[in-house]
Amino acid sequence: MSQSLSSIARFSASDLFKGKGQPGGRVAPFVAILLAVTVLASAANLLLPESSPFYVSTYTITLLGKYLSYAMLALAVDVIWGYCGILSLGHGAFFALGGYAMGMYLMRQIGDRGVYGHPELPDFMVFLDWSELPWYWLGMDQFWFAMLMVLAVPGLLAYIFGWLAFRSRVTGVYLSIMTQALTYALLLAFFRNEMGFGGNNGLTDFKDILGFDLQSDTTRVALFAITALMLALTFITSHWIMQSRLGKVVVAIRDGEARARFLGYRTDNFKVWLFVYSAMIAAIAGALYVPQVGIINPGEFSPINSIEIVIWVAVGGRGTLIGAIVGALLVNYAKTRFTAIMPDGWLFALGALFVLVTLFLPKGLVGVYDQLKAHFAQPQSKSDESSTPHQESAKEASV
Amino acid sequence: MKIKKLVSGMALAMGASMVSYGALAADTIKVGVLHSLSGTMAISETTLKDTVLMMVEEQNKKGGLLGKQLEAVVVDPASNWPLFAEKARELLTKDKVDVIFGGWTSVSRKSVLPVIEELNGLMFYPVQYEGEESSKNVFYTGAAPNQQAIPAVDYLMNELGVERWVLAGTDYVYPRTTNKILEAYLKAKGVADSDIMINYTPFGHSDWQSIVSDVKKFGSKGKKTAVVSTINGDANVPFYKELGNQGISSEDIPVVAFSVGEEELSGIDTKPLVGHLAAWNYFQSVDSEANEAFITNWKAFIGNPKRVTNDPMEATYIGFNMWTQAVKKAGTTDVDAVEQAMIGQKSPNLTGGVAVMNKNHHLSKPVLIGEIQDDGQFEVVWETEGVVAGDAWSDFLPGSKDLISDWTSPIKCGNYNTVTRTCSGQNF
Amino acid sequence: MKRYLALCCCLLSLWLNPALNSVYAETDTGKTSTGETTTASSPHIQQLLTELTQKSLNKAVPVLEKLEQSGGEAMLPLFRTMLDGNLYFIKANRQVISVTKAESGKAFANVFTGEPLPEFTKKQIKKIRVNNRLRGYLRDAIARIQLSSSDPAAREKAVRNLLSDLDPSTIEAIQSARVNESNTAVQEMMDLALAMHKLTNAALAVDQLEAIEALSGSLESEVRNLLARVSESENYEPAVNKAAASALVKIQDKVEFYAFIDQLFFGLSLGSVLLLAAIGLAITFGVMGVINMAHGEMIMLGAYTTYVVQLMLPNHIEYSLWLAIPLAFIVSGLMGVLIERGVIRFLHGRPLETLLATFGISLILQQLVRTIFSPLNRQVASPEWMSGSIEINPVLSLTLNRLYILAFALLVFFLLQLILKKTSLGLNVRAVSQNRNMARAMGVRSDWVDAMTFGLGSGIAGIAGVALSQLTNVGPNLGQAYIIDSFMVVVFGGVGNLLGTLVAAFSLGIANKFLEPVTGAVLASILVLVFIILFIQKRPKGLFPQKGRAAE
């Protein structure tokens, strides 16, 4: 596993950012690398024997799948934060809602194979004496309907929240705190057992998806590959949106909302729809995450998780899309390694990372890379960034 | 390898034998430790990690097991439930451990369960829990509800003459299930609906004014009232403080808790708690030679003369001892062989008497009721005569009263319905 | 705002009014009487005492009953010692002794005379165990004996304790004590007991009605229970049933009124906690525009300071809080200045990035505390004067710690207002917050003002930590529990407006507490959150928006 990940990292350092200062230039190489790694890892898992030195274990595949869904989540946050200046501290909520919709489908697939053998009710409902399925669980046994809900529920929530917030021009800090309150309220709500979502334990013990055994290697590889594909797809779509006229308006709103409004754009509409789009990406990420990790519970709603997503984006470099993905992959990889090596030191490291990145790397790793490249291309033109964080940040549009 | 997963039943056995082959080839027997060392649960679980490490060290001093040294593999699932599953997979596939000691919360166990059943691992779970589960791959050395909650209620009813009941808990699955069982039990004993008050609060609830005042009102109806508390961890301190401040003493309305032990009390000003009760299978204050030796070893191992011992530690101790005995009996660390060898194992309790591993992977243990003292210890005021067998499936829940668990032939099933004679919900 | 203040004053005056005969709901500490040694040393008693050391817990009550009968008042010290769990016996001769904790180890004394005894080793003595049933019995026995106590409060309490268990012998005791009773409150309580007895035992309806008359208006729960029984019982004439029912209704109305006051107090108390937690944030966030996610950890530092102070001065718990308050202010304040100088000043005008950086700081501080003090919760003791409650009547009692914290929160609020309105620092702070550049042009050292403001906000969070250490756990997660609530309060009240914070804190506290009985605790907090989210959409600048040019 360390192999495949470090290979991403190595590539990212040398080949990935072959853009011309424009983040757009990096789409094709990135997608190519992503898909190549996916195909190679999948093949190495399925075709090679376990004794082969190139064998990729199922453990690694699942881990990679998890990282990629996190990357997608980071992408969703970058779309609204990096390009539109909306700092959402509640994107974990959309991720979790998507995950719950998928989890409900998987629960219904268990059918009568639960521990109590009830034909319809999930186990947690049986032992808490539920007599029948609550209405919001109906239809979730159909895959298409569940997938519709994966998009519709977070989308609708984002629409209502966005519509209310952006129309009354709740911006900046206030908006961030409101999104945090939103995810916190959902956290408390999903902890309640009366809600019918399994309370603190959440949904778990999944058996199969669309008839495929979730514990088989092929299903795991397929899920990993689908996650990679969806990541590539959302990445390309988001990139395309940001390059289009729509994207230009969005950036204009970030840099001067009042001005954009005076130019005749209904800025609130743009923001609402971008917010919905972003929420849906997060939801898809959540839906892909759940079958791979095998559990969804209210912990995913916790405000800290949402803040962490923002940090991934900040580390990678916001407003670049690619930065969000790289940031998510790197931070999560580091987390996996460091929690194993020094559980006590890990929080110190994470905390320090937050502080140092905001202070010294306002543009993240991608920004550093661009700067280094510019530096080497025209050696005398610009000084190193990290020595003048103040000026750099001042130049940047305040968010 | 693909075939292995397709024909799962047979293949899993094969996979298991491969794993154990790998272990036999290695120089050591690996013991996985899956307890959170960071995050919210670190408070409780770090202690258990140290307990396992101490047991491993002692076993190695005795010459190891099957002629090999034991090696502990410690990972940190960081109180993150999906991470428990991930780390369990890591332990079983990367480190190829022979046994795992781990878990605290129910959700962590539920998260690990599919992985451990898929890869045919072996896990010891040392904490009191809500029951309603019996996996082939898990041994439950903590108390089931009938080993903690029901004896406690019996004590209150028969010894203290309690007639009105407040079932207060944190809103998660353990209190929910325990209270369901208790409610059914109390009603079976003829307690009226109006004499039972049930209340749930969120994790870490800190403002208990209204609830305590409700309890006070509920208790002022002229009948002896008691609170059965499944309130979790951090919420306990403000709860007991509020009780004390609102003038409810342990004589007026005693509180019996299932989640408050020596370790929790060590962070509390125990003054307002004195006289309130707790039900466990072990108390540090119990006077026995085995216990004294265990406490001395623990304090020496941890290097802190003030550290306390508690019930989940004893559960870990018993589980570990039984596992070593079972491995010796089976002559191998192969999971299937050890699993069968575990059933019927006997190991002395620290409080006296002998614990027995039953067919349903639960222990028979004594149940003790203790009153909290001002030094943070418990004074045993009551104990069951003999041991109580842990019941995987409660007899008081409609969904599970027909279910039993029996891992010996011919049933070999964790959820066997005695009415329909079927076995449901097995993952292999 | 004025309403709340009026209410507080009202509650305070209730407390201070001596006519209400307020009683501290703690066990009174009686003095060991020394003149009774003759009774205590009689052979019969000695034999009973020896028996006591031999009986198991369940069989101790009959022995105690005999002791009470034959010993009477002389047994008071014995019962008290036993109730406190300090009764031991010497294994060699089965003589009972009192063992109490003293500054250096343990103090050994004769139970009855209090004369000090030589030291015993742990092996030589054994504790006489008590369980709740014995405690209950001992308490009743002490109450019975104390009917002739010299302290009227103790006598009143003794009678009240007996209300639940009125048998002929206690009635006799009360009747004889009533004759010599001079204190009106005790007289009333005794009359109540006698009336209750009359109602249950009198044969004539006239007498029963008279008893109901005497009982109506009493808030004692035993009276209510008795009336409820009588109103439904067929052993009484219909007229009596009716009279009991109507008396009950009258009492119920009163009870409901007090329950309302009680709930209001709960709300105010929760509000005061929210106010304390949020007020520091109102300064850093409201005045400086910095989103300090490490605010919760400033509270935590304050709480840990309290812990350390108590650790240093284990014998002065009573005064520890007074020392902890300024120390916590200094510790958290200095940390605040450090954060401002080290990190925040580089992030001016970028509020969202201060959020990220301070979140990182909060993680570091939490982990620091875990490393230094261990992840376990730490034990912070409550001083005696903050324990217990003021009992205004049988259905309304206000807990002391909450009352003090309410007063303390208001005090902190007014002091802060004073600082901001009346000092030159306050003037500078307001100037910088309204127009940084203009203030600088006028010669205000904005750097210095920023550091001081941040220090002030953090220091006040530290003080909040001292207060919270009296209510909840002191552990690494303490801050996390309050950070979101604090933000809600500040945003709801209106950023940059301390008065708004005050109103928001109390209204959210009260709303929460009035919702709780209806919806349960979890749903109540969810509803409050949803309400705030919707409210902010309607009024993005909170309850009291900043007006004028300062408001962008």
From TrEMBL, chain A:
Assigned keywords, A-Z: Cell membrane, Membrane, Transmembrane, Transmembrane helix
Single GO term (MF): branched-chain amino acid transmembrane transporter activity
Chain residue ranges for the region called Disordered: 379-399
Localization in the cell: Cell inner membrane
GO cellular component: plasma membrane
Basic and acidic residues: bias regions: 382-399
Protein name, entry field: Urea ABC transporter permease subunit UrtC
Lineage of source species: Bacteria, Pseudomonadati, Pseudomonadota, Gammaproteobacteria, Oceanospirillales
Gene transcribed to yield this protein: urtC
From TrEMBL, chain B:
Entries under InterPro entries matching the protein: ABC_urea-bd_UrtA, Peripla_BP_I
Cross-referenced SUPFAM superfamilies: Periplasmic binding protein-like I
Pfam families: Peripla_BP_5 (PF13433)
Signal peptide range: 1-25
Keywords: Signal
Protein name: Urea ABC transporter substrate-binding protein
Species per Swiss-Prot/TrEMBL record: Oceanospirillum sediminis
